[in-house]
Amino acid sequence: MSPKPAEAQLYVPRFNVMAPDDVRPFVDAVATAQLVTVGADGLPDATFLPVMWEGERLVGHLARANAHWRRIVDGSPALAIVTGPDTYVSPSWYATKAEHGKVVPTWNYSVVHLRGRIRVHDDAEWVRALVTRLTDRHEQPRDEPWEVTDAPSDYVDKNLRPIVGVELEVESVEAKAKLSQNRSDEDRSGVAAGLAADGVDPSSLVQQ
């Protein structure tokens, strides 16, 4: 008998667990994801797409010319990977380097994995409603937000035809923030200073 495969999960050491209250705001702020599915032939597909997390579903759209959507089996498992800023961390930035030299390079990043069942929506009204919500979400902060209805209706229809909607019914959420939490205050300060010196904003890359 073949061994039972391990349950798929994101590797998250205890000190890298993202605070539950930070997960949805993180996904909302990033607003994009890599959608990963497996076709009927067992081969994986991945597409970067704009997304919105609404209630218990993640919605987005793909280009109709992208063969990925045609390979999706409705109701099959899928994974959406949402990633934030990431950066290389030099061991030379750690205060402890001068103390004992026992330091190595690493990489800081934040990521959320959303798993569930995927469904394709090749429906003009569904896609129009999604694009309208996506547009409103990104335009509202502007002084003069653009609206879908600002463009001629037939022109909008023409530009909606080349896209197809997808909906992930979210069944599990795993979130990781690797932000030097396991380092001392002095080491984290050193990382923040090193990033700033390299012209990188450390605010979302090092735990303050």
TrEMBL record:
Q: Where is the signal peptide?
A: none
Composition bias of kind Basic and acidic residues appears in 175-189
- Positions of region (Disordered): 175-208
Q: Name one Pfam family in it.
A: FMN_bind_2
Q: Where is the composition biased (Low complexity)?
A: 190-201
Identify the InterPro entries for this entry. Split_barrel_FMN-bd (IPR012349), TR_PAI2-type (IPR007396)
Q: What is this protein called?
A: Negative transcriptional regulator, PaiB family
State the species of origin. Answer: Nocardioides alpinus
